User: Which sequence fits this backbone?
């Protein structure tokens, strides 16, 4: 699989960028006449024939276009951990599981205020190709929790406080979930989410790490089906 976001259904010819050309020609040893598959990250799949096996500019002729309609939309909003390796792992696994949108939150107890979106995008692209997903998830830079819930009202908020009644996931509410930092959301932050259409949810009795809770929630939301 090769990632080619510039492709569109009308494309007839295409040249892979240098990185993908090198992988195609030198690593995979593809030659003129071989067929390869490409993804545009927006549901489009393409079959292409190699017309020039240049390791810097591999030329292709598009022979087939296949559109894959979207299934479910799963939006994960998570407070990034201090250890960025955990967020990179989360983006990789969430992409493989079909998460379509990942937003990062700034909360009172968040230990990291910035993320490297360029690196995370590369990780998501690799995960998309490896898992043969046809949609690349949208990745958003960190924003304050209050701003996020106003821009994206409705969904679920997972927290560890016990005073709130918990609901079970259902399809009547947006497949969007808020996951806080390892110190959890504050009571004020939970109240802000609830006042913007979110419902409290429990992910079980175990106290989970941020990235574990986030991945579990993606799996639960994706499995709700249509």
Assistant:
């Amino acid at each position: 699989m090769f990632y080619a976001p510039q492709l569109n259904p009308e494309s007839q010819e295409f040249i892979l960028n240098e990185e993908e050309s090198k992988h195609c020609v030198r690593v995979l040893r593809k030659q003129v006449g071989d067929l390869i598959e490409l993804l545009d990250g927006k549901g489009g799949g393409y079959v292409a024939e190699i017309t020039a096996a240049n390791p810097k500019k591999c030329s292709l002729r598009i022979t087939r276009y296949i559109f894959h309609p979207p299934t479910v939309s799963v939006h994960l909003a998570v407070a990034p951990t201090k250890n960025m390796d955990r967020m990179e792992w989360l983006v990789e696994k969430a992409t493989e599981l079909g998460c379509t949108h990942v937003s990062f939150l700034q909360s009172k107890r968040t230990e990291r205020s910035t993320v490297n979106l360029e690196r995370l995008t590369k990780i998501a692209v690799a995960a998309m190709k490896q898992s043969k997903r046809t949609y690349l998830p949208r990745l958003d830079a960190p924003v304050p929790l209050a701003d996020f819930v106003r821009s994206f009202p409705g969904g679920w908020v997972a927290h560890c406080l016990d005073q709130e009644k918990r609901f079970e996931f259902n399809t009547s509410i947006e497949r969007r979930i808020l996951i806080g930092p390892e110190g959890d959301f504050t009571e004020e932050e939970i109240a802000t989410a609830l006042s913007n259409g979110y419902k409290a949810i429990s992910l079980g009795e175990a106290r989970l790490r941020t990235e574990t809770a986030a991945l579990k929630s993606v799996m639960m939301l994706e499995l709700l089906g249509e």
About this structure: Residues 1 and 132 are 8 Å apart (CA to CA). The chain has two domains: 2-67, 75-222. The mean pLDDT is 91. The helical segments are 18-27, 84-97, 117-131, 145-151, 187-194, 210-222.
